[in-house]
Every structure is written in structure tokens, then in C-alpha cells.
Amino acid sequence: MKTVFPIHKFRELPTPFYYYDTKVLRDTLACVNREVARYDNFSVHYAVKANANPKVLTIIRESGLGADCVSGGEIRAAIKAGFPAGKIVFAGVGKADWEIDLGLDYDIFCFNVESVPELEVINELAAAKGKVANVAFRINPNVGAHTHANITTGLAENKFGISMHDMDKVIDVALELKHVKFIGLHFHIGSQILDMGDFIALCNRVNELQDKLEARHILVEHINVGGGLGIDYDHPNRQPIPDFADYFRTYDEHLKLRPHQTLHFELGRAITGQCGSLISKVLYVKQGTNKQFAILDAGMTDLIRPALYQAHHKMENLTSQDPVVETYDVVGPICESSDVFGKAVDLNKVKRGDLIALRSAGAYGEIMASGYNCRELPKGYISEELV
Ligand code: LLP
Among its keywords, does the record have Lyase (predicted)? Predict the structure, then answer.
């Protein structure tokens, strides 16, 4: 399955913009649903942080997934796209009072709580509304993921989560409070993980913690293992759909789920990553001393991942059929030397006006755009609107 770009339509649109191939998105969602249906008690929430474009969110909601939100704004976006409140979980290390109130007003499924002070505030705010909030504790499993340092979250000294050693104490506090109901444990070890061994390490840790809880006669109904499944940035066409079968099977084989427990997943990148591309235009080809630069009208304000994480996004010249391939440093127009999409990139010979696609940009692309340099935010189009 290869993304076919409607180039004639692209020529009519101001660049840069995001383009979402809904066939890839729908096929990905169908695969998630097919694979997860093999297990009675697995449930998938889409991590809204990866992409909250309303058109994309609506397609995801139609597929039946729940939503994992990390802010009041994301809860609003999910509700607006039609996600049922009963399928929304709310995580985040710093939930403001108004955000907790919003979650309480909508009666969302669960708050993933990251500290005792937060637990106490949720209890207080729920009491003021005469409600009882479902809570799960985010436990830091001290499992390192083999991914970029900025996107691993599960190590011991981390702003996220509650240390494993404090788990019992925190549960005791929750059991005393009248307006929270302790229903589960939550984990997340990082993002862009391709080595199933990392998820196996998490399963082993969850098993240990469950044994400890069982020794105290505490049985939780819900285990949430977060997200993190990676995508193939090098070959967006060869393998557009991640190996969900292997991913769910890994959890089924290694995590000892107790009867009546539900296992929740919060997948972001694996769902929207491959359906999106950033489309931009070449402004200039500039000859340097030892290299040449392709200067695009898109920059780090539109797609920050290369500048922030040295992330690689495959690039394609959509306009040129020129059989000559040349090597370019592909850069943006922002006044920052880190505004580079790639060094020594081979492209079909580039000229001013050519359209360049930066692939695999459907997750953490449009949503992380900024207005730095007083630039406009890029628009997002789905393939169905451009036929
Ligand atoms: N659950 C929690 C608690 C998370 O913190 C995250 C991502 C997810 C789920 C979804 O993870 P995913 O399935 O997408 O890997 N901006 C970075 C990625 C940051 C991920 C933050 N947390 C990037 O562009 O690579």
C-alpha cells in the first residue's frame, strides 16, 4: 500500500500543509481492531497528543477506539470529535484544577494520577461536586526503552509517575479517601519502541507488582500499559502498518492478566504516524562551497522532530521525474541553525517550485507546530477533501 499523492490538487494549495491519506489511516485502524479483537479483555485508547486534527480524530473515533488525553484541551477535542466520555482517560503530571473539574463534569472513565498531592486535589474537587472519581496510579516501572533519550519516560528518576517503592503507600492513601475509587495501575515506558524486549521487560515488572498487590489482597480491575509502539521511518511505503499482531501477542504472552482484568493500551504514533506527510515547496536551490542546499518553505515550526530529536523523515521530490539524483542538505527558512530536515539527502534533481513530501509525519507533526518567527500554523487536509 503506497500513498499516492494528488499532486494536481497540491499545486492549488498554499504550502506548507499536512496531508493525511485516510486509506492508510483507516487500514491501520482496521488492523488494530482486528488484532485486538483476538483478545477478550484488551482495550485501545488513541493518544490524542499525537495528532488532534479534528478530521483525523473523527475517523479514529468512528473506528471505536477510546481516547487518552493529557490536558483539558485534549478532553474538549476528544468530546467534540464524539468520543464517549466513558472511554476517555486523563493522564498528565500537572493537571490544573479546571482540567480536573472538566474531567469530573464529563464523568470521564479514569484519571491517571501521578502524585499524592494530585490525588488529594482530585478527591477534594470530586467531593465538592458530590462525585467519586475513578483513579489509576501511574507507576514508574524503572524500565529503560531503547529509544531517543528525550522520549523515554519509564526510568527511576523522572518527573513522571510514582516510584514503585511508594506504590503501597499511595494506594493506602487512596483507600482512605471517600471521593476517589482506586481502579487500576498505569505505566508508560517511552515512545518509538521497536524492540518487543522492552515491552516484555514492562510485562515482567507489572507481573511483579501485581504479585505484591495480590499478597495484600488488592485486586485492580484495570492495567494500562501506555503506548510506545514505533513505526518504520525509513520505509513508509514498505511497511505503513506497524506489526500490531506481534505487539498485542507480546502482551498476551508475557503479562499475567488476572481474570476480570482489562488491559488498556494508549497508542499514538503507531496509529497516525504513517498516514501523514508534510508537503512543502522548494524556494531556492543554493550552491554552497562543498554542498548544495534545498531551501524549503516548511521549517522547524511546521515539523520540529528533526530539530528536537534528530529524527529522520524520509523525503521525496513529488514534482520531478528527473532521473538524475543529487545530494542536498534540506533546510527550512527559520532563523535557527537547527532548522535542518536532513543532511546529505538524495533527491531527484530539485528546482525552485518542486513539491517535497516529508513522510511519516502524521504523529507529533502538525500538533507540535508553533508560530515562531510569526509564521502561520500549517493547515491539514485529508485525502477525501482533495479528490
Ligand atoms: N501514554 C503516555 C502516558 C504517553 O506519555 C505517551 C506519549 C503515549 C501514551 C503515546 O505514545 P506513542 O504510542 O505515541 O509512542 N513528541 C515525541 C513523542 C512524545 C511521546 C510522549 N508520550 C516525538 O515526536 O517523537
Answer: yes
**Count of CA atoms in the C-beta half-sphere (13 A) of 93:** 10
**Domain extent for 285:** 276-385
Beta strands in 153-275 (DSSP E): 162-163, 180-186, 222-224, 262-267
Same domain, 244 and 96: yes
Residues 247 and 349 in one domain: no
In a domain, 2, yes or no: no
6 lies in some domain: no
Give distance in angstroms: CA of 3 to centre of ligand 1.
24
Least confident of 101-105, 140-144, 335-339: 140-144
Same domain, 56 and 122: yes
pTM over 0.90: yes
Helices 97-106 + 116-128 axis angle, to 10:
50
Same domain, 264 and 323: no
Measured in angstroms, how far is the CA atom of residue 47 from the centroid of ligand 1?
Answer: 7
Give mean pLDDT, residues 241-248: 98
Q: Which atom of ligand 1 is nearest to the CA of 368?
A: 16
Are residues 109 and 190 located together in one domain of the fold?
Answer: yes
Over residues 4-18, the pLDDT tens digits come to 899 999 999 999 999
Q: Is 38 annotated as a binding residue?
A: no
